[in-house]
Amino acid sequence: MNSRALACCVIALIISFLPLSASDDRIVPGKPLFPGNTIISDGGMFALGFFNPSNSTPAKLYLGIWYNDIPELTVVWVANRETPANNTTSSTPMLYLTNTSNLVLSDSNVDNHVLWRTNNAALGLSTPTAVLLNTGNLIIRSSNGTMLWQSFEHRTDTLLPGMKLRIKYSTPGTDERLVSWKGPSDPSRGRFSYGGDTGTSLQIFLWDDKRVMARSAPWTGLQVTSIHEQQLTGTRTVGGIIMYLAFVTNGEEIYFSYSLSDGSPHTRLVLGYAGEFQIQSWNNRLLSWAVLSKWPSDECNLYGYCGPYGYCDGNAAPAPTCKCLDGFEPANMEEWASGRFIAGCRRKERLNGCGDNFLALTGMKLPDNFTLVGGSKTTFEECAAECNRNCSCVGYQYANVSSGWSGGDVTMCFMWAGELVDTGKVRGGIGGETFYLRLAGMDTTGDKKS
User: Fold this and answer.
1) Are residues 195 and 146 in the same domain?
2) Is residue 159 a contact partner of residue 148, using CB atoms and an 8 Å limit?
3) In angstroms, rounded to a whole number, what is the distance separating the alpha carbons of residues 37 and 80?
4) Quick one: which of 136, 83, 138, 77 has its CA closest to 106?
5) Of 131, 18, 23, nearest to 68 (Cα)?
6) How confident is the model at residue 178 (pLDDT cuts 50, 70, 90)?
7) Number of domains comprising the chain
């Protein structure tokens, strides 16, 4: 081999092990990613690299994904939340892709101490590639295009458009949740989490450790809906954002995802370290994140705040407050008058068993602790009759949503027994349901179907 050919081979070998440049959107075997270098998604929206949120010395580095085209560092995904890397003269972290299709984050100078890795079972029959998509999703795929792993399936504190938040019925105990950062400069897992629970399906919860902080209304079959920015902020805007919310269910899972209208600014759903779940949108004029909506928005949103048989009235002026359901009165009038609602309400007249009737309450957030009864083709009359002949049933709700997205009608019959907890009157009635409450001696003439 002549000297020119030898020089070419040496140069080619050096280039193959150089860190990735900022223009790359992928990692391949033999080209690791080191601190100070990033990969950028093809459209320029997201970046993958190492960051130091606390500016600590020596630097505690995390591997993460953030928005590349805004000036404020906003991290949407973190790989090594519990195992930060130390960037010192004796230890340099690196991310590399193995021939067995796994991403590995290790300390390069400490006997390849592994800090984080994916767990694919691929046998290395084809050359893998890790690509950062312009959606913010980091994927590993084989040479034939098969997706082997994706960061969208391993959420941290942020839900991006196209991500799914779901419950897998086939695998109890594997609820997929967002988990907050521990603090503003600490990406490790915090106290708060947001998501579903296989123990009580069709609802979303916000937890403080194991304690429920807040609860959404049960999903009643609506498959696709949209929310305009004005509905979130109460402010009229020109253009603005439209979020399209999708709810999908089958025999194995139920999941929620969302997308944005064309031309919308960056918008994300994030669970903050202080326990607030927020919808945030990037404001290019102010160069900051605007909070379009937050949950819980006030004390009245806290789980069970109004006590048994009490409900939070979102239409009350000047601010939402607790009231008793029709046919009930405060259990402790003195506490209720002072603004303490935990004791809730009690019936004014005892039930007579199965001889009672039902009052239709419209625009309601349905209570917790329900039971689904009947099949997918249950009628309103069958749902009402089922609750009526069950003397322990204190209320029911029937949903019949006709949707071309689902290929037909979706019907659900909810029933409640025992105390009614965490009920609400939805502000403006938007998204509320008709709840049929069992009361003694009620004349149900004029009751309407939901």
Assistant:
1) no
2) no
3) 17
4) 83
5) 23
6) very high
7) 3
The residue assigned the tokens 């960037």 is 87
User: Is there a contact between 215 and 396 (Cβ–Cβ < 8 Å)?
Assistant: no
Structure tokens at 155: 């959420």
Q: Which of the listed residues 120, 154, 188 is the one where a domain comes to its end?
A: 154
Of 18-32, 108-122, 378-392, highest mean pLDDT? 378-392
Residue 270 lies in a domain: yes
- Domain ends where: 266, 297, 328? 297
Residue 331's domain spans which residues?
A: 305-439
pLDDT digits (tens, 9 = 90+) for 30-68: 999 999 999 999 999 999 999 999 876 667 899 999 999
Q: What single-letter DSSP state applies at residue 199? A: T
Q: Are residues 248 and 132 in the same domain?
A: no
Residue 2 lies in a domain: no
Residue 442 has pLDDT above 50, yes or no: yes
Question: Domain containing 111 — which CATH number?
Answer: 2.90.10.10
**pTM score:** 0.86
pLDDT of 437 higher than 50: yes
Number of Cα atoms under 13 Å in the Cβ half of residue 194: 26
| Separation of alpha carbons 179 and 272, rounded Å | 9
Q: What are 389-414's pLDDT values in tens digits?
A: 999 999 999 987 654 334 456 788 99
